[in-house]
Design brief:
With 256 residues, this protein is mostly helical. It contains 10 helices and no strands.
């Protein structure tokens, strides 16, 4: 019997594209990321191509001698189907919608898909890149290596001298205050003299000398009320009450 003519191998790429479009449409429905798919959204088909449907319902064997198989189109179709169904299974596609068994699914795309994703660069670009790399390598070898010196250690800074807090000025002694009061009185600075005399009177220091100084001063300033008041205070500290009363009365009389 005459042999049936084999189908031309030229249609294999078209059937591969149909299978890829159908399986990527199935993977997209299951939520596969768009960047992992090769076909555009409008090119993806909802129904499987004819050769897939025929694969689901195998034809009865024919007694005629089989025709010589076309160049590796079915193998590439099976590889694409196994890879895309593996991708769809990872995205959660139901097992009943997949055609290939689990152990036959591939994790890597077939060679013709990988070649389609990465187009070969022209030989001129490779030659230019090789020559550039060689030139950079020669430049690096020719350039003198810079000598990096370790940083010089910083000289230790002298610690700042501790500043001692100033001590409070010691209070002038009673004798010094008496001398200062007499000097102010002699210079006619009654306010300063009376201030110093009052400090000594409160501490009951040099009372007799103070009384003598104030009595002498009243001969020069007889109508100075503050002098009479200070003299009365000195008398009170000496318990000379009568004389203190007389000095206070004199001061009061001058205020009238």
């Amino acid at each position: 019997a005459p042999e049936a003519p084999a189908e031309p191998a030229a249609e294999a790429p078209a059937s591969e594209d149909d299978a890829l479009a159908w399986l990527e449409g199935l993977a997209a429905k299951q939520g596969a990321p768009a960047e992992e798919l090769l076909t555009s959204e409008e090119a993806r088909e909802g129904a499987p191509p004819e050769w897939v449907a025929e694969a689901e319902t195998p034809a009865e064997p024919v007694a005629e001698a089989p025709a010589e198989p076309a160049a590796e189109a079915p193998a590439s179709e099976d590889d694409a189907l196994a890879w895309l169904e593996g991708l769809a299974a990872k995205q959660g596609a139901p097992a009943e919608e997949l055609l290939t068994p689990e152990e036959a699914r591939a994790e890597t795309p077939p060679e013709w898909v990988a070649e389609a994703e990465t187009p070969a660069e022209p030989a001129a670009s490779e030659a230019a890149a090789a020559s550039t790399a060689a030139w950079v390598s020669e430049s690096d070898e020719a350039a003198p290596q810079a000598i990096v010196e370790p940083p010089a250690e910083a000289a230790p800074q002298p610690s700042p001298a501790k500043v001692k807090p100033e001590k409070k000025r010691a209070r002038a002694s009673d004798d010094e205050q008496l001398v200062a009061a007499r000097a102010a009185l002699e210079a006619g600075n009654l306010a300063e003299a009376l201030k110093l005399y009052a400090k000594l009177v409160r501490r009951k220091r040099h009372l007799e000398a103070i009384v003598e100084d104030l009595e002498n001063a009243l001969t020069r300033y007889p109508v100075e009320v503050d002098l009479w008041q200070a003299l009365g205070d000195a008398y009170m500290r000496l318990d000379r009450l009568r004389e203190a009363l007389d000095a206070y009365n004199q001061a009061e009389a001058l205020l009238r």
